Amino acid sequence: MAPENDDAGDFDKLARRYLDLWQSQLAGLASDQALTEQIARLFAAANAQVASALQAAQGASHAAQDSSGKTGTTSAAPPPGNGADDVGELRKRLEALEARIAELQSKLGS
Q1: Left, alpha or beta for 74 (phi > 0: left; psi -120 to 50: alpha)?
Q2: What is the C-alpha separation between 35 and 106, in angstroms, rounded?
């Protein structure tokens, strides 16, 4: 007969400890007012981008319908923005976000 294996109990304890550590980390992060505000701004910006994309998609589908409600053969709407200028702006924003993340990581590490 093989000896009883208590690995399942060990895994349960390890899983509980892991979740407790994550909960403790998240509670600590939530108590940081500056970080909380930063995350709220990030989510607000993401929500605005998603809403804008949905509106653009809905506008394109409505433009493809003719007056009788049937789908026509109209061309797709041009993309919003200014083309290459948007890429430059995106790069600037990405660099700013990377700098903010680096700053937050240095604060959390110390």
Answers
A1: beta
A2: 13
CA dist 8 and 3 (Å) reads 14
The residue with tokens 């700013």 is 96
Give me the DSSP letters along 42-68: HHHHHHHHHHHHHHHHHHHHHHTB-TT
pLDDT digits 0-9 by tens, 19-46? 999 999 988 888 888 888 898 899 999 9
Name the packing angle between helices 7-30 and 33-63 (round to 10°): 90
Residue 96 falls within a domain, yes or no?
A: yes
| Total domain count, the chain | 1
- Burial of residue 104 (CB within 10 Å: 0-12, 13-18, 19+) is middle
- Threshold 0.85, pTM exceeds: no
The whole domain housing 90 covers 33-52+85-110
Helices (H), 1-110: 7-30, 33-63, 84-109
Q: Which residue shows structure tokens 């509106």?
A: 55
